[in-house]
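[audit] Reproducing an earlier prediction to check determinism. Same input, same settings, fresh worker. If the tokens differ from the archived copy the diff job will pick it up downstream; this log only records the rerun itself.
[audit] input (363 residues):
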Amino acid sequence: MILFSKKLLVLLVVAGINFGYSFAQVAKPFKKDNLVIYRIGDANSGSDINNYNACPIYLDEYNVSGDRPVLVQSVGLPVKTMGENRRILALGKDVLAGFISRSNDGKYLVVPGYDASPGTDILNKPANEVNRVVALIGADGKINTSSVAENTFNNNSFRSAASFDGTDLWLSGGGGANNGGIFYLKKGVKEGVNLGGLSFRQIKFYNGDLYASEAARIYKIGTGKVAEGGKKFTNLTEESTIKDGTSFVIANLDATATSSKQVAYFLTYNNGIVKYSLVKNKWVNNGVFQGAGKGTGIEARVIDGKVKLYVISSGNDRGGDGTLIEVLDNSGYNETISAASKVLLRSGTNQTFRSLAWSPSIN
């Protein structure tokens, strides 16, 4: 009989020796209401971060309840394959990819990436050569990277992923007909089902509905677990002069009211944050706020009927240019956006920030 000390067993599990578990490794459990930043690269990334090479992914959990963010933990995602769990890395120089989300039930973080060796060129590679991988990170800190797509976004970019409850997945990215747009990936299956579209960026669930953004518009893809293609997506923001949209967030300013006061913020790379309010089933443009840098990721929290936005800015020079910006919109529902911003955090050398999401929680 082989005996393990409790301390040794914990170390072995963290190292990825799973003893029957279906996860790659384990982080500390996440704290409710913390913010998680998707960071690309580390002190060893060198020029990879400024090129289209594979870079390590970190999830940095911050407590943002005070004046300045406080780092709770930094979780490195696997750079080596362990059993069914794949390595998962990011494309360094691509501000239109790397958008994480939180599952609809709030229990998982959903992270897009590539099965590749660190430092290798992964720009626009065929999916059967460089598989697209999705990491699911539970509120308990368990990391699973066994979800793989072998037929999505061939010779193009895999940009974002979403999940309803930590099982099936929805992927967004670039490509042509039947190869880009939105894919549905059933748990345990490596061939995604194309739902339509050509080139999408952020994808995420909000209150049971699936939404996605492209360069100029936000669409409603469908309700619940959308698994069949061939249906027309609902264009929420109609025609727009915006051509560089990246990500978006939807919030309800009065969650206790019988009538919803929903607002949406559409982040762009060069043209600020565009605000919309849902008025009589129509999304109305409420103006633009320009003080958000080179915007790539956005999240929101409603406080006393006002919206506090957390924005990631990733500039033209990838290494060390990631910034977390706080933007407070004081205008309210269906009012022209009136906001002020301040920088909260900057990334280190040879690394950058790309997106963010609220931490997963069991409750």
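[audit] rerun output stored. Observation attached for the diff report: Residues 26-358 form a domain with the Neuraminidase fold (CATH 2.120.10.30).
[audit] end
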